[in-house]
């Protein structure tokens, strides 16, 4: 078996006990499934089982982004540490914190606090024991939070802060959401603080599409997982096998869409809150958008919310980039 295809242990799904998260899921399901164009936010893909499946996706031969970014991060972590001298590392969308290992190693002389932030409590539970063993004296403070919502970062140790948002997750936000997200972060940064973004760059469409429609079908299983979750959490009667996984490159918007396409006409009941949703044959439910970037375009997005693109690192094939942003010394573009 290829080392890129080693299996990831799967977690048995359970219903959430968090009333706030359940209410948010219910609201998104009602809004998204009753819209003219059906859509769900990608965050609901990441329950315990979904987080495990995504870890498996990152090991697939087609999914180049994770291994390319990790290799690049290993190469330039020392430069990032020298440019930031961070005492506090805050990682948004941290998952199991495997992306932060190189940064924590390079920052060993200065960092005292690591705060991984993720919507998946399951993923964060894997974090603290291994990191505290590897970095004695490091204060690890996991935080379960929805990073797509307005995020007020809790008080951390003295700066400088380095806020890392890696793995291309920025691309899961639509343009207006990205502007609000980046602007909200920028407003919380002191002049010496820095924001590190890991983004996927626009490249060959065939290569990008293959990363979201692997031959082993793991991504299809991951995408259908949101239907299993709605069944489990809200008492729906989706038949996930009645939906085909589709990946689509939108050249105008420069993003990949993951969709679930109804194989035949069907009506689904969602017991909580009591709605019936009709799908026509061939109708799509969008489960994820993954935007790809050009560096010029990203620089303009950052400038518009009061952030300057300070340093860029990219792999030789220009598949991904690590971008260090700083609070702007000039006013944001209106």
Task: Tell me what you see in this structure.
It is globular and about 60 Å long. The chain has two domains: 16-45 and 206-291, no CATH class; 64-202 and 294-327, Vaccinia Virus protein VP39 (Rossmann fold), CATH 3.40.50.150. The strands form three sheets. Strands 1, 2, 3, 4, 5, 6, 12 and 13 form an eight-stranded mixed sheet that branches. It has a three-stranded antiparallel sheet with strand order 7-8-11. A two-stranded antiparallel ribbon has the order 9-10. Helix content is 33%, strand content 23%. The chain starts with 18 loop residues before the first helix and ends in a 7-residue tail after the last strand. With 334 residues, the protein is of the alpha/beta class.
Give a short synopsis of this structure.
This protein is an alpha/beta fold. It folds into 2 domains: 116 residues, no CATH class; 173 residues, Rossmann fold (3-Layer(aba) Sandwich), CATH 3.40.50.150. Helices cover 33% and strands 23% of the residues.
Lay out the secondary structure.
Layout: H1 19-33, H2 48-57, H3 64-84, E1 88-92, H4 101-106, E2 113-118, H5 121-125, H6 128-134, E3 139-140, E4 143-144, E5 161-165, H7 175-186, E6 194-200, H8 205-210, H9 218-234, E7 243-250, E8 255-262, E9 266-270, E10 275-279, E11 284-291, H10 295-304, E12 307-314, E13 320-327
Helix pairs in contact: 2-9
Known CATH architecture of the largest domain: 3-Layer(aba) Sandwich
Name of the CATH homologous superfamily of the largest domain: Vaccinia Virus protein VP39
Summarize the main sheet: 8 strands, mixed
- Could you say which overall geometry the principal axes of the C-alpha atoms support? globular
Distance from first to last alpha carbon: 54 Å
Regions with pLDDT < 50 over 5+ consecutive residues? 1-9
Any idea how many domains? 2
Classified by CATH, the class of the largest domain is Alpha Beta
Could you estimate the helical fraction of the residues in percent?
25-40%
Q: In total, how many beta strands? A: 13
- In the CATH scheme, what's the topology name of the largest domain? Rossmann fold
Could you report the average pLDDT, rounded to the nearest whole number? 90
Question: What would you call the quaternary organization?
Answer: single chain
The proportion of residues in beta strands is 15-25%
